[in-house]
């Protein structure tokens, strides 16, 4: 997205969109990836407690 | 020196907060973003009745003659409500270009109409090269008799599809210095040879267009100011518009923070509010730091514009560099802290997240402005 500069503003269906706007779609989708199926924070809790053996909060 | 807002500005803020709560709730934002014009005639008329379309225009042309600091207050509230439509393009792009570069006759013709809501304006300066600086302006304006013929393509033009007049930046001469030889032209949208195409955007609340000029014939009086002297006023317009955009972004970021803190107080997980967990608390505190810093640097840049101090352009670039990153961080963190509900279509956070990402790349991204800061302090 950053490499696209102002073109990052254009979405699917725009003739000027880079790669047909697939990067914009993936960018928006990625915002959910750190939440769905256990948030990043929950995963870090699990790593801290189960892998590193830190005490539970 | 007083660093706070005065009573009139605080009144403008509370009036605007109430106005947009009533007139542009998120149900309206969602309807407007689906609509190609991004605005209803009723809401446009109400914006005019408030005097806000003429906020910074001189009184002799039907405006309120206020400054960029006052406009920043209003724009913060507009960003808070993610108001779509051609306010920004009419007031801060086309309108400001007329103020900065228009002849008395051009101002007399257009400014009263812009202030009353009768006409809308925008500014076309960027081209497919996506270059922000003067070198990016290559659209040719050839002298022909007493007039000019313009040919070329402009891109990322806000609201050109609903504008009545477009200020087009073109090149009347080329030389060693790209800042020389740029001229601004007033082009009514009905002019033969002018084609406007609406482009689908990621942030649907912001409408962008391609504007193509094919042998567009203009009379000599269409030029704004002296031929070849267009860069200086154009750069002033872009700087002011950039501060305005930062203000919108500050308002949006504040709203995301407000929504997130509210939610963290009531949402329960493992028997306690999620805001009681350090992982949430620390991130919310980071959001507040981002929001407060964004406001401080934006207010400073707005003040610098109104006062015309030499460090004005530096302040503008410092603001846009910081706020571009900050709004993206805050809107992303807001969704993260909301969890699953944060990325549903029904929740409003995605409106802010997309507005943040789109605004990041409008009028130069953080990287571009950091480079400009480096240049301006002679690094």
Question: How does this structure look, described?
Answer:
The complex is a heterodimer of chains A (57) and B (379). Chain A has 57 residues and is mainly α. Chain A has one domain. Chain A has helices at 22-33, 40-51. Chain B is an alpha+beta fold. In chain B, helix 5 (87-101) runs antiparallel to helix 6 and helix 7 (231-266) packs antiparallel against helix 10. Chain B is globular. The two termini of chain B are 30 Å apart. The model of chain B has no long low-confidence stretch (mean pLDDT 97).
Which SSEs are present, and which pair or pack?
The complex is a heterodimer of chains A (57) and B (379).
Chain A: H1 22-33, H2 40-51
Chain B: H1 7-23, H2 26-34, H3 41-49, H4 68-80, H5 87-101, H6 104-116, E1 121-124, E2 140-144, E3 147-158, E4 165-171, E5 182-188, E6 194-199, E7 208-218, E8 223-224, H7 231-266, E9 268-269, E10 272-273, H8 278-307, H9 312-338, H10 349-360, H11 366-376
Parallel strand pairs in B: 1-4
Antiparallel strand pairs in B: 2-3, 3-7, 4-5, 5-8, 6-7, 9-10
Helix pairs in contact in B: 1-4, 4-7, 5-6, 5-7, 7-8, 7-9, 7-10, 8-9, 9-10, 9-11
Summarize the structure.
The complex is a heterodimer of chains A (57) and B (379). Chain A has 57 residues and is mainly alpha-helical.
Round the mean pLDDT of chain A to the nearest integer and report it.
Answer: 95
Oligomerization category of the chains in this entry: heterodimer
- Can you count the helices of chain B? 11
**Structural class by secondary-structure content of chain B:** alpha+beta
Q: What would the average pLDDT of chain B be, to the nearest integer?
A: 97
Computed CA radius of gyration of chain A, to the nearest angstrom: 18 Å
Which structural category fits the helices and strands of chain A? mainly alpha
Helix content of chain A: 40-55%
- Beta-strand residue fraction of chain B: 15-25%
The number of distinct helices of chain A, counting runs of at least 4 residues, comes to: 2
Identify the CATH homologous superfamily of the largest domain in chain B. Butyryl-CoA Dehydrogenase, subunit A, domain 3
Low-confidence stretches of chain B: none
